[in-house]
Amino acid sequence: GRDLICIQSMDGMLMLFEQESYAFGRFLPGFLLPGPLAYSSRTDSFITVSSCQQVESYKYQVLAFATDADERHDTEQQKLSSGKRLVVDWVLNIGEQALDICIVSFNQGVSSVFVLGERNFFCLKDNGQIRFMKKLDYSPSCFIPYCSVREGTINALIANHNKILNVYQDITLKWATQLPCIPVSVKVANFQDLKGVIVTLSDDGHLQCSYLGTDPSLFQAPKVDSREINYEEMNAEMKELQKIIREATKTQDILPESEKQRDVTVTAEVSPDLDEESQAIDSEVKAGAVPSVTVKITIQSRVAAQKPCLAVCVQAPLAVTCDQFVFDDLEPDKSETVVLSVFLKENCSPPELEGTCMFSYNKPTGIPRVSQCSFSLPLKLVCFPAQPSKAGNHKLTIDTNKPPISFVTIFPDFVDPSEGDQANALGFQFLTGSKTTLLASKTSQRYRIQSDQLEDLWLVTKELIHRLQEYFKKQNCKDFACTFSGSIPLQEYFELIDQHFELRLNAEKYQELLSERAVQFRAIERRLLTRFKDKTPAPLQHLDTLLEGTFREVIALADAAEENQANMFQAFAKLKSATHLVIMLISLWQKLSTDQIAILEATFLPLAEDTQELGWEETVDAAVSYLLRTCLSKSSKEQALTLNSQLSMPKDTSRLKKNITLFCDRLAKGGRLSLSTDLATQPAAVMLGGCATIPESDLEERTIIPGSTAVFASLGQTTMQKSKP
Known about the structure:
By secondary structure, the chain is of the alpha+beta class. Helix 6 runs antiparallel to helix 7 and helix 9 packs parallel to helix 11.
């Protein structure tokens, strides 16, 4: 009729109390950290899991007559005067830490010890023998065994960190159900007339009582008196429903929602002026002051939005002060506003001055939704006005069908108003140090862009065409057009491709050298450890010197690989800028439509990031080869060529450059870009307009080389051609 309490302390001491009186205390042998502890009334023993990953059982009688905790010191006097040594009753090595122990006895003659490990579930007999075990393919959090309706079996509830509660009968999974949170404790209880209630408690105090199954339905629908069918009303209702279906299926969009019907609207407003105090953080740009611009993002919700999250993305080398925002649940007709700044972080010019906002949330029904919007950044974020340069290694001429516009009108943020309409030359100084000059002809309808670097022409050319289009759009001029009649700068473009590819080859070499030196370093380490562990010391024979030298080589190679990686990032940014420029020049040269420009962008800009496993060169080569074999093919013989389905890094860029040259030549002869696979052979008609064609030379002999890959993705569809065995 008394209560006995056992308390386990952090230092491995078991303190036993009889009611409020302290009885005795014992230290567990080999103790490091406390584990789960349970008491077996059938064997009168305490069962725990030690830091040695062993299940240990101690008899109460052995604990009572063992050495007292206050007399732990191992002196001869205390050994003679103290009680017996603490001996374990039985031990079982389970090979992992235990989360919980539970001892049940649903049968009078048999009791079981359940141990929940990190990856396994054990059921032991009361003498330490394994009755059964179950390997778990998830991370458990808690468990509870309970009585089974089947004779000789025991059911158990095991919860895991995936918020799932599993019901086992011995080792057989009988049921699994989803929980709203991760439970840290689970029990089975009876409440009044409701039996078998599952009670769970989460780590944040969320208590839930639930049960499996559904309420029985006692309702029976009464019989309806039969009545005559009115076919006219049914036909009218059918026509109305068909009309609604036709209206709903007019568009092919997955979610046909107009702008007014969107549940959540995301808008981004870019400040017209740069920040007075720059918000640039950890910028690597060598310029004196790195400017930043403020972007204000507003989220307007028409419905309740649960778990809202906003992500703001800009392409490197640009960066934002904060790219992730988490909000509380939004109420209907509520709005949230965030403010952030964008700046140039890496020391290279960005290929794009655009950003994206993505707002994800859940509807009250649990359906996830995403709303997004894009924003454009000002050109003055990456450059500032400078004196025009008279010379440049690279020059482009853009023709228009309208008289030239004064730069004071279209570039008011870069031209001093005091210059008036006489400003026909404009200089742009990039933060990275390069300069680009824009010239307007006084006699003809042309604009010239010149710079020492090819990639620096892109942003200024794009900004010029965009501002001209916006200006004439405001003037209600619908026939404005820009053209390009010069030659595509392929040789300069190929030099950037070779620079990027050379850095990729260097990255492979550094990776191989690092692997070799790491193997050598580990081998020397093993030799040294063997020498140090030897009972009879032997001379090191300069192994320590060799180890230090190898370590320095590994560090030097790692630094060189890191520097090469940074150079490759800058080279890829330059390559993307030049690729954007080439795409724009080809579209102006051939007067391509919007769909054809999208095909060009999907062909030459398939990757947002460049990696060693999947690089720009092999991907673009595969896409260009596919176009040359389909819509730009000259004969059925080329269409019959098959392409390999493996993408691998090429040995050099010669084939890629040949295919790009042939691609431009086919366009010059009247080829038309299309994703249709049933196009006939294109006529070889030379386009008028003074376009200089590129000689094919010997490129026609072997356009598609077996072993290349065709993976062409554009406008949401992918086409793959596999080679025949």
